[in-house]
Amino acid sequence: MRKWNFSAGPAAIPEVVLKEAQAEMLEWKGSGMSVMEMSHRSSDYIDIANRARQDLIDLLNIPSDYQVLFLQGGATLQFSMLPMNFGFKGIADYVLSGSWSKKAINEASKITNINIVASSESSNFDHVPNEETWKCSENSAYLHYVANETIQGNALHAPPSTKAPLIADMSSVILSEPIDVSRFSMIYAGAQKNIGPAGLTICIIKNDFLKDASTDLPGMLQYAKHADAESMFNTPPTFAWYLSGKVFAWLKGQGGLESIGEINNLKAQRLYDFIDESDLYSNPVFEENRSIMNIPFLLADPELDAEFLHDAENAGLLNLKGHRSVGGMRASIYNAVPIEAVDALINFMGDFQSKHG
Ligand SMILES: Cc1ncc(COP(=O)(O)O)c(C=O)c1O
Fold it and tell me: What pLDDT, in 10s, does the model give residues 10-48?
């Protein structure tokens, strides 16, 4: 029996998508084979891939002067590919607002010089430093930030105004609500949260920015090579691409990002309101930086953590354990986690509180 899955990633996928994929598993639309068994150069597969790309462009309203790439290596490879392709100016600006920013900075610092424009590390990343305090360099190749820190549950809800080309890791927030893509030179995201199965990474890059990328790299590491080959420089993760296409079609059917954004904000607000009103639970993140996708919370008595997780699992609420680096709990409430799941979690948390109040 399927249960409510609050995993941070790989995360819940809409059940209708899984059912459709199940129905097509052995044979895709009279083709005589599964999508997994198709050549990525076949006309059937090219149609599947193009449809998925176009649906993503429609959903995010991506302007025509951007490349939309379907790559591999996770968001983690982007931490290196990005400075390799664009760090040649000798310095790149980074905001340090959580564990993923830190990893991005560590990788980039092996390749180019890094200027950390602002950091909230000394307060355990309980906020994103205010844009007005950022100390940007004069001639930065780009400014990188993590739009939603999956582990700490903080977010910058609007793109900052910067002189340098703006780049965002949107792994845990892409497709959760509308964004203005035209503000960015590049957006990247690992798939395994709001997009589809792990194994696929989406990169959206402005042509004007891409034209300056380094050509002095192995082909597999050059964005331009992937763009020229329409993401088929080598064999792409065909099944993940196909399944993500189904998720995009599902999202369009839900009314697109305006509609899902309203639902996501409502889900998050409900959970934050409950946490804020309770004596047992707390969330440390500054209100203006609270993530609508990943909601960490602590129990007043950490001795109760194991019992909470045990009882939650028995109640059909899975994967609520916080990241090992921060402890406590975390509810990830991506697009495929419906409001019923959030209500079930709140009910459970209320009962648990009454038992221990
Ligand atoms: C914000 C963010 N960036 C990067 C990553 C790393 O992604 P991957 O494991 O796909 O490399 C994650 C994974 O959870 C993430 O949440």
Answer: 999 999 999 999 999 999 999 999 999 999 999 999 999
Architecture of the domain defined by 256-356: Alpha-Beta Complex (3.90)
Ligand 1 center to 76 CA (angstroms): 6
Q: How far is the CA of 75 from the centre of ligand 1 (A)?
A: 5
Q: How does DSSP assign 126-177, residue by residue?
A: -SPPPGGG----TT-S-EEEESEETTTTEE--SPPP-SSPEEEE-TTTTTSS
Output the average pLDDT for the chain. Answer: 97
pTM of the model: 0.98
Cα distance between residue 116 and residue 176, in whole Å: 28
In one-letter notation, the amino acid at residue 214 is S
169 is catalytic: yes
Residue 30 is predicted with a pLDDT of 96
* CATH architecture for the domain at 33-253: 3-Layer(aba) Sandwich (3.40)
